[in-house]
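User: Need the bound-state model for PXL:
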Amino acid sequence: MSKTILTIQDISCYGNCSTTVALPILARFGIETAILPSALLSTHTQGFKDWTFLDLTDEMPKIIDHWWHEGIQFDAIYTGYIGNPKQFKIILDAKDKLLKEDGLFIVDPAMADHGKLYPGFDEFTIIGMRDFISVADYILPNITEACFLTGNHYEEIQDDDYINKLLQDLYQLGAKNIILTSAQDDFDSIGVISYDGLTKTTIMKEKIEKNYHGTGDIFSSLVVAGILNGKDIKDNLNFATDFIMNSIDITLDDPYHEYAPKYEQILKRNL
Ligand code: PXL
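Assistant: Bound-state model below.
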């Protein structure tokens, strides 16, 4: 049977991230997607100046309550960029009201990268996110987010002991399945590591020397689609990392497309 998901993240009107990439990717893999925008921005906050920001905190409970009265239920809730720390409580209420009993709560703690929090985020975001992941079925932090969540120091290159400590600390916080992204065991490779409390699965690829913003959101949406479609974790992570590498590869020769990878060209292929 086809699945329905609610994704809760911002709408960045230009810049290919969060809701605007989640919708096409989830639909491409047959998943009906509802959106609950956390904020409305003119662009994402990386590499653009003077972006506009409309906080949608006050609108969210009204939308949730309307859906609740309609008896609307979802197979999964997938959260990303949160517009305001006050939204954590609101989203937990949405989880209680709108998620099916056996539904999945999937959290991409999109709040930081490359050792730093995104603009406007602070200790309240970290504390709220820590609370959130304690009830999550899946979390998809990058290394920086994992460090902020667990209080570990950030290392650009990580050895096995460091990764194992991050995974254990995240697991102790309550997350049932961890998918840790942007792991690097040397300067030439990059990959993802999943951990479910028993099994660790590592996928490493040759690194392309270019960082595009929004890559994490594309990756998370692909992995979420795979989870909902019952894909084996290793196949799922392999597919999503190859997809990202191919998207980056075809963007490299376009100097006017620094703000995100051209994932649409890969999505239109016969996957
Ligand atoms: O990709 C995460 C993200 C989502 N939305 C907005 C952002 C960012 C990262 O900076 O700025 C608005």
